[in-house]
Amino acid sequence: MKPPPLLAALWLLFTFSSGTQAGAPISLHAENPHYFEWRGRPVIIVSSGEHYGAVVNRAFDYHRYLETLAADGLNYTRIFSGAYVEPEGAFNIERNTLAPTPDQFLCPWARSTEPGNAMGGNKFDLKQWDPGYFARLKDFVATASKKGVIVEMTLFCPMYEEMQWKISPMNAANNINAVGAVDKHAVHTLDRSGGLLPLQEALVRKLVTELNPMDNVIFEICNEPYFGGVTMEWQHRIADVIVETERDLPNRHLIAQNIANKTAKIENPHPAVSVFNFHYATPPDAVAENAAVNKVIGDDETGFNGNDDRVYRTEAWDFILAGGGLFNHLDYSFVVGQEDGSFAYPKTQPGGGSAAFRKQMKVLREFMTGFDFIRMKPDPSVIQGGIPEGGTARALVEPGKAIALYLQSGKTAATALRIGLPQGSWVAEWVNPLSGAISAKEELQGGAVREIKVPAYEHDIALRITSGRPE
Question: Which among 45, 95, 390, 405 has the fewest CB atoms less than 10 Å away?
């Protein structure tokens, strides 16, 4: 139910005066919508965040977590709304923040007085909101805003297996509303959801209204909807509800849609969707394949490729240098009690993450923000030869001004890269992706294809070429 316009205006005026509103919400950049604009500046998102339970897990100290992200130079985190929660042991994740203990689980819906919830405690009343949840949510987002961290609020998630559906508040066994007596694959549909759809729409309206004053929020419709029976029609309906709700509110927020693991061609996108997320997007084919969509393409989750930070560092550089506008690593070093990202997880964990990795992500973010990246586009044609045998190269180019280049793997013995340089003087600097240190530097004259000696490197190396001599 929408608030009366006068009430909404008064409430928003109070919110603004309390200092939680910084300005217009994050948006696509007007000159280059493959990237973001926030607080008057172009933004590229690079981060390494916890496993989405920062709000729904009351035991998680999100203040310490957000302080860590900001101190590490990162600018993004995902959170799940609480419509989905995981049991302990799901996906073999040790100390999973999205698997709170029963007494610490907090979700948008209030508990009833009727016992019998499968996760412990009383059942939920899907027609009543939990004030404690919304207070925690808004404080989390406001704290993130002060730290310069953008929050993706993921509204829903499929029920991958029966164990997730068994403990969901939307399951009829866990609520007093006589809804949700359906198979787990029917939950996110327009016609088979067992009465859940109106309550899902009400949840979206509530979340969107509560967070409307905040400038650091992106709404993602559903995590990995390509699993578990989530229909495209249902996703489009949720996007419509977001748009309808904000029509009578001061702000308009970006809407994200999770398209596929790896890559897929985006077909007939909803007009309100501005961010298209992929998971495990290596190689970064999703960027080139969907360049014509002319909106942000993100690599929003990593993992299931071992614990070695190198695997995910190269995924990040490869994706961003291919023209992606968002990279978010799933960092398992953040857990309850070690919200500073210091947990030494076991090798059985499905992914990686560490303080060292986050420093590497800061190097990537600073490398990119050192360019006028809004004016850059992928252009591998500037590389005329010399890519190390067995290796790959990505290049972003601002014509006549700058080239950002990334080499990965291959034969790492010193060789010479052949780069087509326009007329003028140029400075080439090789950057170590682990430390940000300059490995080598030389000055060149353009007007032809020039050879730039590649210093020896272990796994990957970046090249910054800029016009003009240094000051």
Answer: 390
Are residues 310 and 424 located together in one domain of the fold? no
Instruction: Based on the fold, state whether residues 446 and 342 are members of the same structural domain.
Output: no
The answer to whether residues 153 and 206 touch, using CB atoms and an 8 Å cutoff, is no
pLDDT at 471 over 60: no
Residue 12 pLDDT > 90? no
Give the strands of the sheet with 217-222, arranged side by side.
Answer: 45-49, 326-330, 296-301, 273-279, 254-261, 217-222, 150-156, 76-80
Is there a single domain that holds both residue 289 and residue 420? no
Instruction: Report the domain count for the chain.
Output: 2
Q: Distances from the Cα of 39 to the Cαs of 36, 148, 149, 150, 371, in angstroms?
A: 10, 10, 12, 11, 18
- Give SS3 for 336: coil
Residues 351 and 424 in one domain: no
Q: How confident is the model at residue 415 (pLDDT cuts 50, 70, 90)?
A: confident
User: How many C-beta neighbours within 10 Å does residue 92 have?
Assistant: 10
Q: Are 66 and 144 in contact (CB under 8 A)?
A: yes
CATH number for the domain including 223? 3.20.20.80
* Single-letter amino acid, residue 128: Q
Same domain? 327 vs 392 = no
CA dist 381 and 403 (Å) reads 11
pTM over 0.90: yes
Q: Are residues 301 and 433 in the same domain?
A: no
Same domain (yes/no): 262, 400: no
User: Average pLDDT for residues 153-170, to the nearest whole number?
Assistant: 98
CA distances from 311 to 65, 303, 308, 317, 408 (A): 24, 9, 6, 10, 11
b/e code 185-213 from CB counts within 10 Å (16+ = b): bbbbbeebbbebbebbbbbbbbbbbbbbb
End-of-domain residue from the set 343, 374, 405: 374
- Expressed as residue numbers, the domain containing 445 is 379-467
Condensed to tens digits (0 to 9), the pLDDT of residues 345-355 reads 999 999 999 99
